[in-house]
Amino acid sequence: MEKGDLKEKTVFGMMWGAIGKVGTLTINFITNLVLARLLMPEDFGAIAMLAIFLAVSSSFIQGGLGSALVQKKNPEHIDYSTVFYWNLSVAALFYLIIFVSAPFIADYYALPLVKPLLRVQSVVLIIQSFSYVQYTQLQKQMNFKALSIRNLAAALAGTLVAIPLALKGFGPWSLVASAIIASVVNVLLLWKMSSWRPAWEFSFTSLKTLFSFGGLILLSSLAETLYTNVQGLIIGKRCSAGDLGYFSQAKKLEEIPVMGLSQIVNDVTFPAFASLQDDRERLLAGVRKSTKALSFLNFPMMILLMIIAHPLIYLLYGSKWEPSAPYFQILCISGLIYTVNTLNMNVIKSLGKGKIYFVIQISERLMGIALIIFGMKFGIYGLLWAVASVAYISFIINSFVNKKLINYGFFRQLGDIGVCLLIAAFTGALTYGVGLLFSFHPVLIMLIQIAIYLSLYILIAKILKMEELDTYFSTLTNIIHRKK
């Protein structure tokens, strides 16, 4: 791929990825906002209890083979067909395992409702298995316009089901129905948008070849999934469904900016970096530019959210959800560095370093799970601070590895992100102090703080002539002119 073509595809991939992700998150956010006022924390807690079982199953079903297809330079039709039938077979197996295990899982949580909820919602595993190959093909082609349209339509379909059912008093079943309908729409649209169809062919040789890279990605993904979801598993067992509901709502709100931006980064930079795997100099330049640009957005966003956490949750969800606010603030501290970690891991993955990727993920996540279990001895807050500490320990480890791979180590990365972090923190301190001077309604103070923070941050960036500000303005201008 030529340099100009790759740059244009990456920029507009980011644009369409942002449109799709922001749009989807907006729809899901509005849906969650409405449902939070219709449902109780216990309803969200019951659904959160299912998360780890569905997420682990989904990791096994995908098997890391999608990443292997993206990383492979010229996959053949039989490679795609092999992955398709493998995904479908493993999905059926895991649905059966979950169906049989549901009563025991309900007993673990001492909540009988978990049994039918889990048996019905796990149907999405089979439905989604029909979509992975088409998604991988569109991702490899960097056709993020099609993927974004699919995301928006699926999210909207889920919303149109969830809210009426919640109004009718279906409780957590409204969330289950939403997930199933969204999955169905997702698959139908992907099959409509992609011309690829599976042939009656399967190759164990192909499967073995793809697993040489994808198998390690599977184990790494499994470690990540366990780490991410073990928090809910522990809280659900040690605390009440209501406590888990507060935690899950704080996590959902924090994931809107963090996971939204991170998923855009992952979807776009992985294939882009993979195409540069034979040109380390261009790869390093691309990684550095991406790191600076994303830090310029992510750092001020997370610090601002920490400042306005209490009035924001009150405004969005009502007073019954206010216990979520301090949970949200600590999660935002973890979210500060999440996107940088995603970029670091994408470099390792794009270079085909499956063994290194696997060792890092396993080591970091086992360490994380150990710290979380230890932290829970001090309650939910101990668990949350353990999560935050793991994110920064992971950054140190990841940057050390990339020092060896592309000469982009800890101090070089810290130099690239340090200015944005200092400006964001300084602006945050001023904004927080100004908020203490007012005695208005908390929501009005929040609006004043947002205006002050954004104005100060952009002004300081302008005074310092930061390249990242110019990059975003020029990209936005190009997009506007392109539409005209």
Structural features, described:
With 484 residues, the chain is mostly helical. Helix content is 85%, strand content 0%. It is built from 21 helices and no strands.
Question: Would you spell out the secondary-structure blueprint of this structure?
Answer:
Layout: H1 3-38, H2 41-48, H3 51-62, H4 65-71, H5 77-109, H6 114-121, H7 123-128, H8 132-140, H9 144-167, H10 173-193, H11 204-238, H12 241-275, H13 280-307, H14 309-317, H15 324-335, H16 338-350, H17 354-375, H18 380-406, H19 410-436, H20 442-463, H21 467-483
Helix pairs in contact: 1-9, 1-12, 2-12, 3-5, 3-11, 4-8, 4-11, 5-6, 5-11, 9-10, 11-17, 12-13, 12-15, 12-16, 13-15, 13-16, 13-19, 14-15, 15-18, 16-18, 17-18, 19-20
Taking all Cα atoms into account, the compactness measure Rg is 22 Å
Order of helices and strands: HHHHHHHHHHHHHHHHHHHHH
Q: What is the end-to-end distance?
A: 27 Å
In total, the number of strands is 0
Please give the count of helices. Answer: 21
Shape: globular
Question: What oligomeric state best describes the polypeptide chains here?
Answer: single chain
Q: Percentage of helical residues?
A: over 70%
Strand portion: under 5%
> Biggest β-sheet: count, sense, barrel?
none
Mean pLDDT: 81
Low-confidence stretches: none
Structural class: mainly alpha
List its traits.
484 residues; 85% helix; 0% strand
